[in-house]
Design goal:
The chain is an all-beta fold. The protein contains 1 helix and 28 strands. It has one domain: YVTN repeat-like/Quinoprotein amine dehydrogenase (Methylamine Dehydrogenase, Chain H, 7 Propeller), CATH 2.130.10. Helices cover 2% and strands 47% of the residues.
C-alpha cells in the first residue's frame, strides 16, 4: 500500500528552502491584533474563546529571532515568548496602539467614552497599570499615534457627528477637534498619520478618504470611493515608529481582494488599481509597510496565509506577489481542528534582520520567520 505523505511534514521539509529563520509559538486564545511595544517586545490583543473577556498581553521576543544566519546558540539563547504583563477587560476591545519604546499602550473599548493609557512593567508587576484616562466622549473610537510629538488622535462618533480629537499624551490635554459634517455618522472611520502634521481618515465602509492638516485644523481634500461595492476597506501608511519616514504612496485594500494605490502628490486618480489580487472574504484586513523598503507590504486577514506584495520599479505601475507564508495552517491546535484559520496580523521586525516578520492568527499561533527572497 502506497504511503500518503503528510501535508504538514511536506511543508516543514520545504520550509528549509524558503526560510532562514522559522520559529513557531502559540497561546490558548484567538489573537485579534499585534503591535510592537519596543525592539524586544510585542503587545497582543486577544479574545478568550469561551466568553466575552478580552485580554492584552505584552510578550518578550526570544533572542533566537535576533540571531544572524548560521550563528550558534549560546547558554543564554531563549527560544520562547515570555509574558511580561497583561490586563483583562469585559468591554469589547476596539483598538490598541502602543507608544513605541516607552512601555505604554493605549486601549479603546466599546461602551466607554474615554480611552485609557496603560503603563507596562511597572515595578516588575505582571499587571498593566491604567495611568491616564482621556475623556474623549467618543465611544468605540479608532486610534492613531503620532510618535514624533507624543500625541494621538481618537476618531469616532460623538452624539450624531463623526469627529476626531487630538490629545497631548503626557499632559492629558485635548489640542484640537477635527469635525467634518459631511461624514456619515453610521459609517466607520479609521485615522492614519502620513506625516508629522498630515492625517488621512479612511471611510472603511466605502474606501473614500479625507486628508487633514492638524497644524491649523484644516480639511485639505476628499477623495471619493474607488468603486461602488459592499466591501470594507483598510489602510496603512509609511509612517514608521520614531522616524518621519514617509512615502508618496497611500494604499488601501478591500476585503473583496482589491488593491488601490494613490500618489499623495496627485490624489484625484489612483496610480494603481488591481482587482482580485487577494481572495475575497468578510474579514478585517491588516496591512503593514516594510520600513526598510517602502514599496513592499505585508498583508494578512484574507485566509490562513500571510502575503507579501511589492510594487515593481519597472515603470509599469504594477504590483506582484513576492512571498506567501502558509505556516499558520500547519500547527497542531485544538482550536484549528474545528474552526477556519485566519491570519490576524503581521509585523516587520527590522531589528531582527531583513525580510523578518512576526505573524499571528485566530488559532492562537504566533510565528517568527525570515523568508529567502
Amino acid at each position: 500500500m502506497e504511503e500518503v505523505e503528510d501535508p504538514m511534514d511536506e511543508w516543514f521539509f520545504n520550509s528549509f528552502k524558503k526560510y532562514h529563520k522559522l520559529q513557531m509559538f502559540g497561546i490558548d486564545k484567538p489573537i485579534l491584533a499585534m503591535d510592537l511595544s519596543s525592539t524586544t517586545a510585542v503587545c497582543l490583543a486577544c479574545k478568550q474563546s469561551e466568553n466575552t473577556v478580552f485580554e492584552v498581553l505584552n510578550l518578550e521576543l526570544p533572542n533566537k529571532l535576533y540571531q544572524l544566519e548560521n550563528e550558534p546558540d549560546s547558554i543564554n539563547t531563549s527560544r520562547d515568548l515570555k509574558i511580561k504583563c497583561g490586563t483583562l477587560t469585559t468591554n469589547k476591545l476596539i483598538d490598541m496602539k502602543t507608544i513605541f519604546n516607552k512601555n505604554k499602550v493605549i486601549l479603546s473599548k466599546e461602551g466607554m467614552n474615554n480611552v485609557i493609557l496603560y503603563q507596562l512593567n511597572t515595578n516588575n508587576s505582571d499587571q498593566m497599570i491604567p495611568i491616564i484616562s482621556f475623556d474623549s466622549k467618543i465611544d468605540s473610537g479608532k486610534l492613531a499615534i503620532n510618535h514624533l510629538n507624543d500625541t494621538f488622535i481618537v476618531w469616532g462618533r460623538e452624539n450624531t457627528w463623526q469627529n476626531g480629537k487630538l490629545f497631548d499624551i503626557e499632559n492629558n490635554k485635548c489640542l484640537l477637534v477635527c469635525k467634518d459634517e459631511l461624514n456619515d455618522a453610521t459609517n466607520n472611520y479609521v485615522p492614519q498619520f502620513i506625516s508629522k502634521d498630515k492625517l488621512i481618515v479612511l471611510n472603511s465602509n466605502n474606501g473614500a478618504f479625507d486628508m487633514y492638516c492638524i497644524t491649523n485644523n484644516q480639511h485639505i481634500i476628499n477623495i471619493p470611493q474607488p468603486e461602488a461595492n459592499m466591501a470594507k476597506w483598510f489602510s496603512n501608511t509609511a509612517y514608521v515608529n520614531l522616524e518621519e519616514t514617509t512615502s508618496n504612496n497611500f494604499q488601501i485594500i478591500s476585503n473583496a481582494g482589491d488593491l488601490v494605490v494613490y500618489d499623495l502628490r496627485c490624489l484625484r486618480t489612483p496610480k494603481i488599481y488591481k482587482r482580485n489580487l487577494f481572495p475575497e472574504c468578510n474579514n478585517d484586513i491588516n496591512i503593514n509597510l516594510d520600513p526598510g523598503n517602502l514599496k513592499r507590504t505585508v498583508v494578512s486577514g484574507f485566509d490562513e496565509n500571510v502575503y507579501i506584495i511589492e510594487e515593481e520599479s519597472s515603470g509599469d505601475e504594477n504590483v506582484k506577489l513576492k512571498f506567501k507564508h502558509e505556516g499558520h495552517l500547519f500547527i497542531e491546535s485544538e482550536y484549528s481542528s474545528h474552526n477556519k484559520i485566519t491570519t490576524s496580523c503581521a509585523l516587520w521586525l527590522p531589528m531582527c534582520g531583513d525580510n523578518t516578520l512576526l505573524s499571528s492568527a485566530n488559532n492562537g499561533s504566533i510565528q517568527g520567520w525570515q523568508y529567502i527572497s
